[in-house]
């Protein structure tokens, strides 16, 4: 009883904080204002300048509040990627959980014993929902993806997880807008809650496809979410560059070198990118070094928020 009561008050306090922050952010006149009418399909992080004006204790509350449950979909076939993911970016998730199609002797995971991709994704998301505890954001990725979790948290900081968010790199197929699986899928608690409910309705969201052709799991997910009134949104930075990438940094830089030889890095990728994909295990280690270890001594990035590194970690 007592713990229920205290979590209720915690909820009220957090809710209050949210309103405060939202109204604070809303009251700044930001360059985002003119994109507001498109907000449904394009999501951006708040501007750094807006955040700088927040009092320190509120910033601390904010950074502690955004906590991410990582749903990492693995198979023993991708063991080397799995090990690399385990040793690199997933350490920055507040809770990294591996979901596998079959048991691996080397790695610990929730064994779903399910070869079908779509059925496995459903089981994993059900499991994540049931084990969410007080975590309110979910990030689903494959082990070939490299994610910079702090940048994801920055994108989410002014978003309310009791609203239905479904974000990543959104693509269109006919009438359907869906989030590409390869570059990572973000779901708020509310979106996941609606989804789990729809999973139970076999007419709207069947576990085994009835269509003559196979619908990919990323599209299945979008179809089921759509029944719950949850629509795909594209994560972008202030310049409209995509934050979720289905390609590796190397591939993106190579392309930029041919298309923008005078301005390779700026044209290539967002400085606040959240994912890159299609990486080899060694490229993932290179990323880890570049993102979390290598630093130009004395350089100041003027960031307003600090997301603390995982417990017990030296610097990575
Ligand atoms: C996976 O990560 C955990 C936590 O960082 C670590 O204890 C474990 O040794 C890792 N497993 C492998 C096989 O690298």
TrEMBL record:
One CC-aspect GO term: membrane
Signal sequence, renumbered to the chain: 1-23
Signal found in the keyword field: yes
Biological processes annotated in GO: protein O-linked glycosylation
Stored InterPro entries: C1GALT1/C1GALT1_chp1
Topology class, membrane: Single-pass type II membrane protein
Annotated compartments: Membrane
Keywords linked to the UniProt accession: Membrane, Signal, Signal-anchor, Transmembrane, Transmembrane helix
Source taxon at top rank: Eukaryota
Molecular function (Gene Ontology), one example: glycoprotein-N-acetylgalactosamine 3-beta-galactosyltransferase activity
Coiled coil region boundaries: none
Family: Belongs to the glycosyltransferase 31 family. Beta3-Gal-T subfamily.
PANTHER family in alphabetical order: BETA1,3-GALACTOSYLTRANSFERASE, C1GALT1-SPECIFIC CHAPERONE 1
Protein name as catalogued: C1GALT1-specific chaperone 1
GN (gene name): c1galt1c1
């Amino acid at each position: 009883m007592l713990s229920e009561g205290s979590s209720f008050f915690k909820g009220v306090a957090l809710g209050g904080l949210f309103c405060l922050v939202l109204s604070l952010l809303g009251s700044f006149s930001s360059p985002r204002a003119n994109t507001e009418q498109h907000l449904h399909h394009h999501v951006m992080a708040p501007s750094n300048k807006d955040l700088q004006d927040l009092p320190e204790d509120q910033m601390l509350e904010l950074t502690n509040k955004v906590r991410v449950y990582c749903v990492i979909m693995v198979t023993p076939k991708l063991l080397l990627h799995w090990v690399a993911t385990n040793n690199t970016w997933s350490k920055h998730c507040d809770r990294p959980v591996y979901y596998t199609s079959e048991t691996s002797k080397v790695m610990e995971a929730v064994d779903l014993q399910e070869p079908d991709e779509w059925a496995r994704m459903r089981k994993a998301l059900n499991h994540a929902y049931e084990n969410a505890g007080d975590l309110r954001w979910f990030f689903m990725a494959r082990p070939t993806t490299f994610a910079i979790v702090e940048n994801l948290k920055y994108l989410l900081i002014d978003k309310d997880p009791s609203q239905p968010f479904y974000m990543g790199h959104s693509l269109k197929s006919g009438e359907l807008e869906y989030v590409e699986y390869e570059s990572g899928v973000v779901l708020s608690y509310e979106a996941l809650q609606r989804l789990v409910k729809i999973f139970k309705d076999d007419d709207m969201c069947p576990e085994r496809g009835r269509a003559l052709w196979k619908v990919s799991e990323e599209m299945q997910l979008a179809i089921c979410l759509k029944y719950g009134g949850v629509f795909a949104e594209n994560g972008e930075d202030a310049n409209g560059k995509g934050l979720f990438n289905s390609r590796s940094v190397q591939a993106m830089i190579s392309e930029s070198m041919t298309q923008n030889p005078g301005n390779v890095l700026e044209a290539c990728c967002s400085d606040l990118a959240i994912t890159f994909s299609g990486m080899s295990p060694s490229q993932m280690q290179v990323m880890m070094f570049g993102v979390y270890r290598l630093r130009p001594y004395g350089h100041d990035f003027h960031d307003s928020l600090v997301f603390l590194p995982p417990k017990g970690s030296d610097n990575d």
